[in-house]
Amino acid sequence: MIVRRLSKPITVGTVTVGGDAPIVVQSMTKTDTRNIPATVAQIKELADCGCEIVRVAVPDTEAAQSISTIKKNTSIPLIADIHFDYRLALAALKGGADGLRLNPGNISDVSQIAKVVQAANERETPIRIGINAGSLPPTPKPYSSIANHMVSVALEQINLLEGLDFDLIKVSLKAFDVPATIKAYTIIAKKIPYPLHLGITEAGLPKTGAVRSAVGIGILLHEGIGDTIRVSLSDHPCEEVNTAYEILKSLDLRQHGPTLISCPACGRAEVDIISLAQSVDKSLRGITKPIKVAVMGCVVNGPGEAQDADVGIACGKGRGAIFSKGKVIRTVDETDFLQALMAEVKNL
Amino acid sequence: MIVRRLSKPITVGTVTVGGDAPIVVQSMTKTDTRNIPATVAQIKELADCGCEIVRVAVPDTEAAQSISTIKKNTSIPLIADIHFDYRLALAALKGGADGLRLNPGNISDVSQIAKVVQAANERETPIRIGINAGSLPPTPKPYSSIANHMVSVALEQINLLEGLDFDLIKVSLKAFDVPATIKAYTIIAKKIPYPLHLGITEAGLPKTGAVRSAVGIGILLHEGIGDTIRVSLSDHPCEEVNTAYEILKSLDLRQHGPTLISCPACGRAEVDIISLAQSVDKSLRGITKPIKVAVMGCVVNGPGEAQDADVGIACGKGRGAIFSKGKVIRTVDETDFLQALMAEVKNL
To answer: Which of A151, B66, B154, B344 sits a CA distance of 20 to 30 A from B169?
Structure first.
């Protein structure tokens, strides 16, 4: 149903972004990059929860110099996030960064950018042109919209890089404003061949930020736009990764562990379906296989959903029917709901 | 940017659904409807958190008979959720329900449906044709897709109601599968003039269910489809309402209380921005004015976002700049961040 925009793939370390590669999930460390053990530990946590590319902030020379040691002790590709000072980009490349993110809003000197591009070209290291509505360069005359301003800055920077014979480019155009973000990506998607990195910037705390990110990123992915995504949440970065996979899973674009179908409960349910769903969710942690498990509270949609899932339970008063691969396996008492369901999960 | 599909408005109690009315937020009680005090209390909680229409399950006669007392003690329009037994619909109408939800998957007898429609017509009470992928009626030959099956059942039921001279119709076509849901609503949106009630059914626990709902409902709303939404979560119904508003707010379709813009934190931040964002979020509770508050951790996007918000803080090492309506009001020490920011919020 989704017809994906065709983009020119690039390689970030060992990971392909763009073309027909799976949509890549990335995040960013929240540790002080100069604190090498803490940063390495967080990157390992991120790799364990499914993060495929990690970005680290490089605010100073010490942070840039930490990259080589961090790289030696971690497995996923590492991108250096650079602002203000082009020399930090050079140092990060020297340290072995697999990619750079440059912000045209705060590095604008053409000769400085040329030095970075030359060093990146020698190493075949890609650069993300990372536009952010919160840090756009000053403009002599105002644009008609934030989206147009973001697109214009990106196109100018792309033009500059192409003129320097560099095309290992990835582009992002992030705003907190979802309609502005959608508009910007929709415009640029038709104008350039490069892969797009999607995100809603500064989306906020986990609950509200996840919803805002899901709406913005979800709409773009459904339009076929986007080759890699980063969900920005004021929370542990693994929450960003989990949310990113939930977005991708909901559109059948990636698989990632079990999916729980559970009814919201209502006055019809005769068991505490919310508690049961929570217990099942806990029991499913650690399972990596992409199975569908349904926990349903009554006879209205219960049998239908339980039948469609790989494993399911449709509960009635004190008894529940356990389904596996579309068939009722047995009926069990309420005290056995969790155990019986998980036994069938293990049987898969 | 969003061009809304034009639908024929209906009135549910005092609330208009469809036409150019604001997109209505609804939820469903999770109490036993026969437990009148518990149900009344939950409806009051729902009204307080912004729920505009509430649905209650009506699994038996006692539940149907509870409606008149529940109605007398609550203020928002009430919809009776009916399955299997048309007589419960008649009893709910008699009790003063402001709307009915009928499921063609489990009430199919034409003469029974005709009796309900006649009673609804006499009271000018709307009926939602509530299709659910988990409870579709059996079909002699399989459809090419769930979406087509849902649409076909809905169209047949609409035809039946129209033939009985009834047009106070609202339609929903819910599935857990997001692409199937999107496809179904997209097809029917072009075929009928009636308002559409959106939802992703059995979306699951709050975190994953909110993301799945945001993707599905967000994509449809962005296409201009949808007149009322219900987010289904295995959680307290006020969480459903909060999530619904976050979806609508992210697309600028509704306003609802403060919006917090907060950066995800990274190795560049020199203050604990996540804790600060959490504290600000807590302090903003109870405020109903739709203000934008930005909590930012560094100089990259901090000043830009803080400037764009109604009130904001851009933090540096030990000091932060407080913004109000786009201007720096003062700089404060780290110990005063929260207090100074909230003082400006109160000044609005």
So the answer is: B66
CATH code at position B330: 3.30.413.10
- How many angstroms separate the Cα of B199 from the Cα of each of B142, B218, B226? 24, 10, 9
Look at residues B205, B221, B250 and tell me which one is the last residue of a structural domain. B250
Phi, psi of B11 (to 5 degrees): -120, 125
**Chain A (280-309) residues lying within 8 Å, Cβ to Cβ, of chain B:** 281, 294-296, 298, 300-305, 308
**Contact (CB<8Å) A176/B261:** yes
Among B250, B269, B295, residue at a domain's last position: B250
* Residue A286 neighbours by CB under 8 Å, 6+ apart: none
Say if residue A244 is in the same domain as residue A270.
no
Flag whether A2 is in a domain: no
- pLDDT of res. A141: 87
Burial class (CB in 10 A: 0-12, 13-18, 19+), A11: middle
User: Are A149 and A271 members of one domain?
Assistant: no
Based on the domain organization, do B267 and B323 belong to the same domain?
Answer: yes
Distance of residue A130 Cα from the nearest chain B Cα, in angstroms: 12
Could you tell me if B79 and B98 are in contact, meaning their C-beta atoms sit under 8 angstroms apart? yes
pLDDT over 70, % of chain A:
100
Across the interface, of B250, B251, B267, the residue whose CB is closest to A57 is B267
Q: Is there a contact between B261 and A136 if contact means CB atoms under 8 Å apart? A: no
- Domain membership flag for residue A90: yes
Report, in angstroms and rounded to the nearest whole number, the Rg of chain A calculated over CA atoms.
23
- Any chain A CB within 8 A of the CB of B214? yes
Q: Are residues B54 and B146 in the same domain?
A: yes
Q: For chain B, what is the domain count?
A: 2
Residue-wise pLDDT for B215-271, tens only, equals: 999 999 999 999 999 999 999 999 999 999 999 999 999 999 999 999 999 999 989
Shared domain for A241 and A271, answered yes or no, is: no
Residues 6+ apart with CB under 8 A from A309: A261, A292, A293, A294, A323
- Nearest CB to B179 within list A252, A263, A308: A252
* Predicted TM-score of the model (pTM): 0.98
Q: Is residue A237 located within the same domain as residue A279? A: no
- Contact A262/B at CB under 8 A: yes
- Among B72, B94, B176, smallest CA distance to B80 is for B94
CATH of residue A82? 3.20.20.20
Q: Retrieve residue B297's tokens.
A: 């951790």
- For chain A positions 131-170, those within 8 Å of chain B (CB to CB) are 132-136
Whether A207 has a pLDDT exceeding 90, the answer reads yes
d(CA B9, CA A334): 45
How far off is chain A from B342, nearest CA to CA, in Å?
17
Q: Give pLDDT, residue B140.
A: 86
Q: How far is CA A210 from CA A185, B259, B275, B341, in A?
A: 19, 13, 18, 24
Say yes or no for a CB contact (<8 Å) between B1 and A183. Answer: yes
Tell me if chain A has a CB within 8 Å of the CB of B114: no
* A233 and A95, same domain (yes or no): yes
By residue range, what is the domain housing residue B160? 10-250
In a domain, residue B264? The reply is: yes
pLDDT tens series, chain B, 348 aa: 799 999 999 999 999 999 999 999 999 999 999 999 999 999 999 999 999 999 999 999 999 999 999 999 999 999 999 999 999 999 999 999 999 999 999 999 999 999 999 999 999 999 999 999 999 998 888 899 999 999 999 999 999 999 999 999 999 999 999 999 999 999 999 999 999 999 999 999 999 999 999 999 999 999 999 999 999 999 999 999 999 999 999 999 999 999 999 999 999 998 999 999 999 999 999 999 999 999 999 999 999 999 999 999 999 999 999 999 999 999 999 999 999 999 999 998
Q: Which of A201, A267, A296 sits opposite B32 (nearest CB)?
A: A267
